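[audit] Reproducing an earlier prediction to check determinism. Same input, same settings, fresh worker. If the tokens differ from the archived copy the diff job will pick it up downstream; this log only records the rerun itself.
[audit] input (183 residues):
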Amino acid sequence: MGRLTQRVLTAAAATTAAVALSAVSAFASPIAGQNVEDVVAYDISTGSALFCTSSTLAGDAPSAPGPLFVIDAASFSSPGEVNDWCLANGSIPTQVVATNLPWVFTAGSPLGELAGVSLTLHMPSVPCTATITSPGDVSGTYTSGPPNILNLNDDDLEVSNSSCPFLFAQGDDFRFVAQYEIS
């Protein structure tokens, strides 16, 4: 292959890559969220509660029309506790794993909706595991700031699987309350 042809192909490839990168950034902006209050979730029937002092969200804010946020990652912890895990009923170390990602938040009036929420709770000291899912959407509001605040507060989650019915019984309604500052 001649040098001129090689240079032309290299320049074309570089131009294509630059156009592709600029197209992606033009359609979505990265977002990050940090909780501003403890994340609290509880089984409405058994009264068992889950508390996480730290939670983060990460994802993108696609350009309109479409969802306000697409959340690709979510973490839940309580620094200083065993393994930095959250606590169930105030004393049971609980690893909370976000599943079924991405979660999609669509703005609405008066309430927006976070679709796809699913959490798996691992409690090795008990031992048991429970899965919390959202057969519907978790209601919430987004207030543009500063600060930008995403409030989630709904009992539209359900215990879909559980090996510890004394804490979280399968089929029970589950309330989720969280507030995040989005940047």
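[audit] rerun output stored. Observation attached for the diff report: The two ends are 49 Å apart (CA to CA).
[audit] end
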